[in-house]
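One chain is below:
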Amino acid sequence: MNHFPVRRRQFLQTLTAASVASELPCFPALGAMPVHTSSPAHSSVNEEAVSPSEPVAPRLSIHFAVCGISHSHIYGMVEAIRRGGGILVKGWGQEPELLAAFRKRYPDVPIAETQDEIVDDSSIQLVLSSQVANERAPLGIRCMHAGKDFLADKPGVTTLEQLSEVRKTIAATGRIYAIMYSERLEVKAAVKAGELVRAGAIGQVIQTINIAPHQIIQRPGGDAGSVGKNGGRPDWFWNEIQFGGILCDIGSHQVDQFLYYTGSTQAEVVAAQIANVRHPDHPHFQDFGDMMLRGNNGFGYVRLDWFTPYGLGTWGDGRLFILGTEGYMEARKYTNVAVSKQGNHLFVVDQKQARYIDCNNLALPFGAQFVSDVVNRTHTAQDQTECLLAAELVIRAQAMAKHAHVDWESKV
């Protein structure tokens, strides 16, 4: 796919030679009539945008609480549930500096003295948590036994033993244990891609490829990660036992997408590797990893790293590629490098045309769907089995991963 150093309108205005125009795709400004460019294959390129929709008032309401704020993902989780009709009635956090920021953002929300105060409150229907990663599942199990549903930040589970207990507790209590895989559930281009896949826009999905770079230290004003004294991150961020490892942690987003877009209900990890090439002071950390997956309905590849450069202007250039029997898609989730700082770009190519879709006006459905699930005991927002299968696959990938090395890593 071509990248243009100037805006599309300027590019079109500077095209003068018909011979050049016949070879390059043309992209009109949003709101203009689509420009169709002839080619030997008689294909065309269209640019469109998701139409704005009128805000819809939530139909349902629940009382929910926050119990654990170790990662700032908690704010996105809270806002999703509030959009869906949830009322935040109580909060708790163990880190004083993070709790101070939480109080400032939600000054009218009472703060509990202990976790028990939230777990034992019978008026609370749902608990959200971004507690230290390996502490989320034990807390969720307690909440489910107390008659509450639970929404964990990813990774929602870090060991197979935790996963077994979560599954047993779900079966015994009938409660929901959800994991916020926000790179699909809360990214508009990813949601639109799912709609098109379900509609058969590219035929049967063959493979997903997820490229998921991240950034360790956020520039001032960034909110994509937790903050701490140790290299800009809290101590638990560098400890594999606590954060789960790179494949288990940030890889969980990507494996969720592999399962969802391929529709696979069974899957295995074919190969996995991890490395720590630039952080020798943190020997229990990994800054690179990748894995290959095979499901009963498709294949997947995932690459993860912590090397996003500051020049990008955001925390990561997340890409999703979906290959189908009748076409393919690419989602540029958070930016379009050197073209637009805005995210939610979706490119779709089928047998008839190539399309660019600006997805920024799309209304995110997760919050309202999840509130409805809590009230109606359904699983519309997130399939429970698929949610935990993604968790299982990344735990297994982390456990089987080969620790790889490169010759130059000790020299940088």
Observations:
- The radius of gyration is 22 Å.
- Confidence is low (pLDDT under 50) at residues 1-40, 222-227.
